[in-house]
Amino acid sequence: MHPSTPTSPAAPPSARYPAGGLAFPHRDLTGIGPLARHEILFLLDEAEQWVELNRQSQKRAEVLSGLTIINAFFENSTRTLLSFEIAGKRLGADVVNMHAATSSVKKGETLIDTAMTLNAMRADAIVIRHASSGAVRLIAEKVDCPVLNAGDGQHEHPTQALLDALTIRHALKLAPGSDLNGLRVTICGDILHSRVARSNILALTALGCDVSVCAPPALMPAEIEAMGVTPFHDFDAALKGAQVVMMLRLQQERMSGQFIPSPREYRHLYGLTLDRLAKAEADAFVMHPGPMNRGVEIDSQVADHPTRSLITRQVERGVAIRMACLDVLTRRARGVPGWAEEQGVLA
Amino acid sequence: MTPRPLTITGGRLVLPEGEPVAGALRCENGRIVAIGNVSPAEGDDVIDARGALIAPGLVDLGVFAIDKPAFHFGGITRAALMPDQGPPLDHPARVRFAAQSGKPDFWVHPLAAATRGLEGSELAELALMREAGARAVATGRNWIADSGVMLRLLRYCAMLGLVVITHAEDAGVTGAAVATAGEMATRLGLPSAPAEAEALAVARDITLAELSGCHVHFRQVTTARALDLVRKAKARGVPVSAGVTPAHFMLSDLELADFRTFCRLSPPLRSDADRKAVIAAIADGTIDVIASGHDPRGPEDKRLPFADAEPGMAGAETLLPLTLTLVRDGHIDLARAFDLLAGAPARLLGVDAGRLEAGWEADIALVDPVRPWIVDSDKMAASAGNTPFDRRPVEGRVNALFKGGKLIA
Description:
The structure holds two protein chains of two kinds. Chain A is α/β, with parallel strands linked by helices.
């Protein structure tokens, strides 16, 4: 390891958080669920410096030089994989991508075997996407290095929720350290199958938001109100008072009659048009994790709106958030002062 | 080879009714010849039970594997084998082979596959399988979705005098679900189905049982709503009965936290309200049978993401002690516990077993009902340790087990 490597070039004000490793006592990032409010804020604050760096022409910090990061994607992904790859490279790490979705690796004991193989190659962090809920946690139990969840089935996608929260904080021009107390957010779309929705519900409610979710009955999970949100089937009613509207992608295969009669019928009930956006608060922001079905869940005039759409800004913050997560989770192994192993790490 | 005559003395006899009574039991030629105030005859093997219960060997209704060490550990002397084998028990020759596969120290009563390949469409050769030793018919792990097939099956089995053991979950509602719809499944992002899928299936099959006159046994009924349907049908005189495994009266879906695949069961674990309804149904007689559902699964089936793991638990070793918790909590008495574990399943299978009765096979378990031990998935007698009860302290252990009057464990 490289204990002499400088840590974060411009460390954020640390007074808000417990000292050193106590600020984030988790070895892995398997989800938002295990995180406390101040741990979420800590990651958001850590990302601020990387947002700045990413806007320079010289975008490289040698924080992770010499470290190997493996992106093991058991499910297809373009933007999340790219975002993690850029994040690792900007921090100076050696980043390797494993496209398990296109190889013979499918499931079964091979999942554990693959994890053991990556572990034996002495990865310093492993980023995993997998089609089954809980798969990332299963791998995390088997490897010695930090594991980051890049999406597991319908369970969690924590970096998406973090980048969404950071994007909102910037859009509202809130200072580092601020939460989103009192903000009214409406999440609309396929809540049932969405890991983005689950992670966002956990993060936004932890940060004090008043969250509504909107979906047709077939795409609404049972007892969702137990997660502290208000469910709606009527999109217009769900939009009333919303300051942020998060649209979710609807998978094509769910619009062929099994869940929704057709894409145009979905658009009729749940498509975010400019007219419909008028039902939300004036100047409400619009978000979408991508990739979008333009003309289905979101109209182009909304998606490309110069002031109200945050969609490209989400992508930008995604890189910064992933840089922050990779930096923070590797601090113990890098021997960053205050982050020594004996500080007590939660599983 | 016939064992020598055997007399078990100094025990407490578990009889069909009432509290256990101090007494002895004598066997000859592998059969019980006298119960109660008997003394050993000249030349008998004599075993002192030292105050243990002298109970009938358990009859486990609906297991997925013949796993003798686990059954013997759990005091089980006979098991009804589910037809879900590879290949399925849908052919007389396979049934005949399965019926012989445990002898002499364990008896297997095969359950004939209701339909060819357990596919739920064409009736299997049920009369020939009965001749080959099938003691009942089972739909397997799945429900027969086609009501017309189910009605024809029940009418045919009513004629043959065979009980039909069915899985009660409406497959259209459950789909690919691995959990019961509710807060836990929602938080974990697991495919789930409403608990009412069970009541839907039970309601249909009660109707068809009434129409056909065939005895339908629901292998597992795990929800308040479905149990209520069974309760009312029984009161009306419909020939139905119900079973359950300890998982559904001991555990609820809260156990799924951390994606514990040993808790991936079929039907899935339910809410705590349903768990309590199962206990109430055992207490009031709505549930007739407690079985292990023994289904040992190695890491290749269980060390997987939750939804990809196979359902099932290794239940044979914990069947008796977990059922005894119901006695300790005052829901049932000991006589009823052994009727749930041995008497009722034997009656459903039509075999002379499950009860201490002169002239019957001497299948006897000596049970210390308060002997404490800790379930340990790494040290199980079963061929795999997939128990959701790992690390749980329990009470009740078999001190000795006799099959046909011969000591086997």
